[in-house]
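Batch manifest, entry 17 of 40.
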Amino acid sequence: MHDGQALAADEPDRSHHRVPGVASVHTRALVTWISIFPLVTTGMAILALFADGWPPILRALVLTLVVVPLAVYVLVPNLLRLELALRARVMRSRPRRTADSSSNEQAP
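Output type: structure tokens
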């Protein structure tokens, strides 16, 4: 129980376990940057072709009207899903350590 309080996605519960399947805040920040940087770069290049005389605030408005929804609804969720699948694959490929195997390994 969490005393009715919601935990942040990367906040551990009382037993110090993160919610499985939820990316850490650092992973989410990196994925968000990976999504937004190419979108902004491409958007700026495209806007430069026809909006060169526009005021900067208008260019920023148009750019964010396209970039934010595209990142929030398409790219970030798909990249987080990919990250989760890759993490699951890595975890499945690791050999499992059990308490018995570690206690049986004693120095001669």
